[in-house]
Amino acid sequence: MPIKIPDQLPASDVLRSENIFVMPESRAATQEIRPLKVLILNLMPKKIETETQFLRLLSNSPLQVDIELLKIDDRPSKTTPSEHLNNFYRQFDTVKNRNFDGLIITGAPLGLVQFEDVIYWEHLETIMQWAKQHVTSTLYVCWAAQAGLKLLYNLPKRTRKEKLSGVYHHHSHQPFHPLLRGFDDTFLAPHSRYADFSLEYLENNTDLDILATSDLAGVYLAATKDKRNIFVTGHPEYDANTLHNEYIRDFSEGMEPPIPVNYYPNNNPDNTPYASWRSHGHLLFSNWLNYCVYQQTPYDLEHFSEENFTKD
After folding, report:
1. One of 51, 68, 134, 142 is an active-site residue; which one?
2. Has residue 14 been placed in a domain?
3. pTM score
4. How far apart are CA 63 and CA 3, in angstroms?
5. Catalytic choice (235, 280, 282, 292)
6. Angle at Cα 62 formed by Cα 173 and Cα 188, nearest 5°?
7. Could you confirm whether 292 is annotated as catalytic?
């Protein structure tokens, strides 16, 4: 089944060129089926690139998914045309009285910034609190996972001395958990963050199900018992060249970044990198849509209530 996005969204041409089933709004309006309503709060600077990456993963599902894009505030963007933001992104005030099946909160380049110094922190807290009453399942990605842990568990910010960057091996801890169905015992996933998510720290301070970890990168995937809050500390949505672009950017700014681990062939940045995590990225998102969203959400979103959800 396709994802439904605005007819003129730039990502639609990219996805169609990759033979991904994208349904325009005009065609979807003729179908008598209830699509899943998924909201994406895009905190990344390059919004067109990021929305395309997430839409690619959301498209690999038998479910029809109705996507809406949300921006955090009205500040002008240096990397995304204002016309694009005005045409395709909504303000929170326009959706706050509605219910959604799923919410994705992306990462943000704020790894070295304290929460209280994030200009939109209070607004982000408002949206995360709102999601408790209006969203079936929320997916927190990378920096958003750290922000979500602060909100839900009051965990202080933990920052690594050096940036974690590269593609790391992970181990599945609960192979029969719905989010891990179909996963190999070990798999690869990219990370790009300063945040520290050690296994001991989360085990000692939360009641989360720890689903996948890396010996080098710490916890990769964790979830609340009711599957309404999913924390992904890496970037399964990244394209093959995303880590390379970040490395070149940091290098050009004089930051002397480490070469991303297990990424370039022969560990040489002159060699073209390739994606070794794509299959598990798609599987993670299709599992989330099916088992955490579709299987739990009420058919009539107008009757959404936290009482609909019980812990397993």
Report:
1. 142
2. yes
3. 0.88
4. 8
5. 235
6. 30
7. no
